[in-house]
Amino acid sequence: MAGILNSKERVLDTIFTDLGKKQIAKGRAKFKYVSLTDRHTFYQSGPDGEIADPSDRIYFEVANRPQDQIMLTTDEKGEILPYTGGEISITGKKVLSGTNQSWQKPVTGDAKEKIHNLLLGSIQNYRDQQIVGIRDIFDENRKFILSTSEANFFISETSPIPKSDVQTTTIESVESLFQDERLAHLDNFQFLPPVNRKRAGEESASQIGSFVSLGQKPVGIQALEKSLAARVGKVITFDETSRENNLICQIVEVLPNQVQKLSIIDAGVFPSSDLDSQGRHVFFVGKILTDDNENQTFVNIFTIIFD
Fold first, then answer.
1. 101 and 75 within one domain
2. Residue range(s) defining the domain that contains residue 227
3. pLDDT digits over 193-252, tens only?
4. Which residues pair with 268 in a beta bridge?
5. Integer distance in angstroms from the first to the last C-alpha of the chain?
6. On the CB side of 278, how many CA atoms lie within 13 Å of its CA?
7. Which of 48, 90, 157, 259 could bond 83 through an S-S bridge, CB–CB 3.0 to 4.6 Å?
């Protein structure tokens, strides 16, 4: 509900969005970036050509808008949180069309069209923020053009998984998250056997007992390249991009009547043979499934390397 703020005082009016409130309640809120917008004001010239003082104007209280959410966000179970972009809405895995909830209907048709409309809604939400930015006058490239707009993979008995590799398995046979090499580099997945409190004069604390690490060593770039060499891959180059080359990726799976956002594991940055490269950033993309023992398992579908 909007209200009129006191026009005689300078007030910094801040609220949390509905999504932000849910993240705070679950302890998942993280502040990484700050943006400024002038969408709530206008500019008027003064008598001497300067910008007129806007402090005497009456401003409305800030309110939450559907456009405030730009990216698709999932909960701890991987379910997409309610999202609205243009005339497309997502609730759980269902994709609906229409801005009025009373007459929304499931989206049907081609999968590419669904993704196209979904991305257009996300881009429009970003534009509606009217964020204040700075253009690099020394950067002549302000476009983002890819060498190809799509990459197709054909599944057969030998591709993309060769017959020499494991082609069929069960979730119970796959290692859980705490045993997965793709997560072994993170602090929360390190092998930390319990130890006694270090006593005076001791250089290190003694272990309480003998424990065996059930996890794997962190994935290395050489072993990763060797495993990927036997699989089908696609190379996409950025023909035109900015100097910063800031990228935001949303990876979703489109089914006949559903959309699911895939999980991504950041494996870190590895050295590159290219002297102009800042490193090879590796991401594992897949799904998190739960076995009969309630253990969560990451199933890797494909790997992305930014070089």
1. yes
2. 145-188+217-306
3. 888 888 888 888 888 888 888 888 888 888 888 888 878 889 999 888 887 777 888 888
4. 282
5. 47
6. 6
7. 90
